[in-house]
Amino acid sequence: MATKYKRILLKLSGESLIGKQGYGIDTERLDQYARQIKDIVKMGVEVAIVIGGGNIFRGLQGAAKGFDRIKGDQMGMLATVINSLALSSALEANGQPAEVYTAINMYPIGKHYSYRAAIESLKEGKVAIMAGGTGNPFFTTDTGSALRGIEVGADVMLKGTRVDGIYTADPEKDPTATKFDKITYDEVLARGLKVMDLTATALCKENNLPIVVFDMDTPGNLLKVIEGENIGTYVY
Fold first, then answer.
1. What is the per-residue pLDDT across 187-211, written as a single tens digit (0 to 9) for each?
2. Whether 26 contacts 19, CB under 8 Å
3. Average pLDDT in the chain
4. For 180, what's the count of Cα atoms within 13 Å in the CB-facing half-sphere?
5. What is the tens place of the pLDDT at every residue in 220-230?
6. Beta strand pairing status for 46-51 and 7-12?
7. Checking phi first, is residue 228 left (phi over 0); if not, alpha (psi -120 to 50) or beta?
8. 22: alpha, beta or left, given left = phi > 0 and alpha = psi -120 to 50?
9. What is the rounded CA–CA span in Å between residue 83 and residue 162?
10. Alpha carbon of 127 to those of 100, 134, 179, 194, 210: distances in Å?
11. How far apart are CA 99 and CA 109, in angstroms?
C-alpha cells in the first residue's frame, strides 16, 4: 500500500490520554495509539512523536492559579516526559521499538535530544519520541512539535486531536460552525483560529511544514491520513 508521507511528526494531545477515566493516563487509550502507530511503521513510515502534558499539568493554567510561570512551564515539560515514557512503554509492549529523547539532559530517563540521533532512530525503524518541549519556558508543545518536525525533516505535522478538523468556530459550542477541508496558514492567523499558538503556526509557515489536523481518537484515522484520504483539515 502506497503512503502519502514518508516521515511524519505526530503531535498527540496529553488530554486525549485521559480517556474515559477523567484523570491521568488511560492504558487502553495508550494501547490503541500504540497499535495504530505500529501499523504505519510496518508500512515503512518513519514516525517522530511529540506529546503534550495537559492530562497532568499545564504551565499556563498553573500560572493563572499563582504558580511562577517559569516553574509552571517546567512542570509542564516534566509532564510531557511522563507521557512520553508511558507511550514508549506501550509501543514496546506491542513489539514496536521506541526511543525517548528529552530536551533537557535527563539521562537515564531518556537520551538527550539531538536531531541527528533522532533521525538515526527513525532510519532504524524506531519511533522517536521527543519529550520536554523545547526545553524552554514560554513555548508550548505545539511550538515544540513544529520545531522538532522541521529539525528531523518531516514531510508533514499530523496534529491528532479530539475534533475531526478545523472549523469556523468551536463545534462543541457553536452548532453552525463549518469545517475546512483545506486552509492556508495566513487564513488561520487572520481568522484567529485556535489551531495552534501563533509561534507554532508561524514556524510551520516559514519552513513550509504542512499540518493535518484530524481526530486521533477514532481508531483507523491515522492510517487513513497516511494513505492520503481526505479526512481532517490540511493547513498549507
1. 999 998 888 989 999 999 999 999 9
2. yes
3. 94
4. 21
5. 999 999 999 99
6. parallel
7. left
8. left
9. 17
10. 9, 19, 31, 28, 21
11. 10
DSSP result, 104-164: S--TTSSEEP-HHHHHHHHHTT-EEEEESTTSSTT--HHHHHHHHHHHTT-SEEEEEESSS
Residues with Cβ within 8 Å of 212's Cβ and at least 6 positions away in sequence, in order, are: 156, 157, 158, 159, 225, 232, 233, 234, 235
Torsion over CA: 80, 124, 221, 26 (sign) = negative
Write out the three cell numbers for 197: 499558538
Q: How do residues 142-184 score in pLDDT, each as one tens digit?
A: 999 999 999 999 999 999 998 899 999 888 889 899 999 999 9
Cis bond before residue 108 (omega within 30° of 0): yes
Residue 160 phi, psi dihedral angles, 5° rounding:
-80, 120
Residue 1 pLDDT greater than 80, yes or no: no
